């Protein structure tokens, strides 16, 4: 999903939480910002994979990749490696949850923002006939990537 949609969805949900459920403005801002900052792992993936830290190159590369991916058949998509996105997996969410329980509940608000983000991502995966497991467990993505090729 494009960042503009995550920003819009995060803003609307955060606004509703502040306005209708009496969340503080600070909590609303934490939830809002975490609902789209999670996508920084896409940039990390690009930077490590391409050995290029230029964010503008990363944006261009991802837009090109999305267009190429759209042209693939469902069968072809199954043969392509999926990106390891460290913040898009339950492994990371469990760390945030534990920090929220034992360290500071701010992490639970961050986890709420991540949840908003993930619901949007899962909806898009379902819409594009792709398994939601791609953005549920990054260990599973790593395992399923065996014998698949990169989309270039």
Provide a concise account of the structure shown.
With 152 residues, the protein is an all-alpha fold.
Describe the structure.
The chain is an all-alpha fold and 152 residues long. The protein has one domain (3-144). Helices cover 70% and strands 0% of the residues. It has eight helices and no strands. Helix 2 crosses helix 7 and helix 6 packs antiparallel against helix 7 (106-127). The longest helix is centred in the last third of the chain and has 22 residues, at 106-127. The model has no long low-confidence stretch (mean pLDDT 95).
Strand residue percentage: under 5%
Q: How would you spell out the order of helices and strands?
A: HHHHHHHH
DSSP strand tally: 0
Gyration radius (Cα, Å) is 16 Å
Tally the structural domains: 1
Please tell me what the overall shape is.
globular
Biggest β-sheet: count, sense, barrel?
Answer: none
Count the DSSP helices.
8
Helix coverage percent: 55-70%
**N-end to C-end Cα span:** 19 Å
Low-pLDDT segments, ≥5 res? none
Structural class: mainly alpha
The mean pLDDT is 95
Quaternary state reads: single chain
SSE blueprint and pairings:
Elements: H1 3-21, H2 25-37, H3 40-50, H4 55-70, H5 74-78, H6 90-102, H7 106-127, H8 138-144
Helix pairs in contact: 1-2, 1-7, 2-7, 3-4, 6-7
Short descriptors:
mainly alpha, 8 helices, 152 residues
């Amino acid at each position: 999903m494009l960042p503009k949609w995550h920003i819009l969805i995060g803003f609307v949900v955060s606004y509703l939480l502040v306005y209708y459920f009496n969340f503080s403005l600070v909590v609303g801002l934490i939830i809002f910002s975490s609902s789209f900052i999670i996508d920084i792992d896409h940039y990390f993936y690009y930077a490590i994979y391409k050995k290029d830290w230029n964010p503008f190159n990363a944006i261009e590369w991802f837009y090109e990749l999305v267009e190429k991916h759209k042209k693939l058949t469902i069968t072809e998509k199954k043969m392509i490696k999926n990106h390891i996105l460290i913040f898009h997996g339950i492994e990371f969410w469990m760390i945030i949850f534990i920090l929220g329980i034992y360290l500071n509940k701010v992490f639970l608000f961050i986890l709420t923002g991540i949840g908003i983000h993930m619901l949007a991502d899962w909806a898009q995966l379902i819409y594009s006939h792709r398994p939601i497991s791609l953005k549920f467990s990054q260990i599973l993505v790593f395992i399923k990537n065996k014998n698949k090729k990169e989309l270039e």
